[in-house]
């Protein structure tokens, strides 16, 4: 007897499954990222096509910008200064990283930590330090106050000062990329080159450079973007030499010309988006360079090489330390350069443009809130995007919106928030002028890097954790809190440290958003420097650096202990 076919109905998701907490959070994720990033950005870009009377004028603002010689010159200034600064910083960082990773020099830990110091310093601090070193009354200009027969005279105000400041600012960013790229090279390639009789130069050109080419490309674009969009250094020591970032500041703060500020913002964003796209492509290729059979690099003997790189490392590390030590000394000298006795009077900010210590305490609060709220939001969103199995389309949109801030300059985010939140018809208008918008701007500005850090940590965890929990009907938040968070705790602490440190030193994202009675330490540097209170600005910079170094040391101690506990389960006894 012939069997009758059995008809089955396809399994359909019911509304209860579709509207569970995890899916609702994914929807909330996309809405939140859209309201904090995409919508303000679109609103900003649209303003470039309207005049002050809200009349549509097409590309007239762009035509006006390029036909105004002084404004067009700012674009060219920004391009060539960024190219030169990037070339110098990348070259120095590569040689420095090569010396640490590929030679047997001494003091590698010291050199590594010194290279990281500029990350804890506001970029304006570099410009102020150069003023004390090479200004009209500078230490080196006066020949160490007359101790030397002649001084070193440099036209520090203008492109020279900007380039030197930017090189200090960019150096650690390029160094971190190169130290990572050089650490993953396959030793077997060098053994093959030696077997074939290749010279040291030939091996370097045919093995070393190709193995780090993706890191090199990434470093170039990261440094170019950071320099192209930087505001602190040009503002501190640029003089009459204008760049795009200072143009935005002058158009918005000085002239209240919002439409032209939006126009410059678009010009500032285009190279950043191009650099971001190239960097993403480079990163995808970088992941497939090593195989399971790769062997780590072994440093070959070379006394002359080690001596040269040791000398180079000492020179570069000294060049990084001198501006920091100069600022520290300048903050303690009574009247530079007439009364060189030490005093703490510059740490009394009550009589300067910085409005006392209030900006510093406000920065501490904003940075702490940014670290706490930003870490929670970033890790939760990364978990929902990486570990969820439903709503794949929304999760892809969420991923795009999460990495979008990587391509956005801080000043563009700040300007976009003015247009979006300073609108009386916006239901979120109430946060404008409060600490909330400063925290939100910081989280948005720095969201991309912590998101990628969290995603990378989550990718290392087996998907079986979520699958087993789901099969046992364990709510996802229990798995998140009891399994995922403890195993990713080192990455979570790193995210919090990153957000805190960057929130302490940033100027660009918040310079437009802070109110008169809610100033920040890094922005107070701008005010003090503009008002001529340079010694007080140096003192405020020292407070910022000390705070960030303390946070970094606490991170190192805490992450070491946490890492031992989180990795204990992997050790077989």
From TrEMBL:
Residues 75-279, 360-555 form the ABC transmembrane type-1 domain. Keywords: Membrane, Transmembrane, Transmembrane helix, Transport. It is a multi-pass membrane protein. It is found in: Cell membrane; Membrane. Gene3D superfamilies: MetI-like (1.10.3720.10). Its main location: membrane. It comes from the Bacteria. PROSITE patterns: ABC_TM1 (PS50928). The chain crosses the membrane at residues 21-46, 79-98, 110-134, 154-179, 214-237, 257-278, 308-333, 364-385, 397-420, 432-458, 534-555. Pfam families: BPD_transp_1. Belongs to the binding-protein-dependent transport system permease family. This is 2-aminoethylphosphonate ABC transporter permease subunit. It comes from Paenibacillus planticolens.
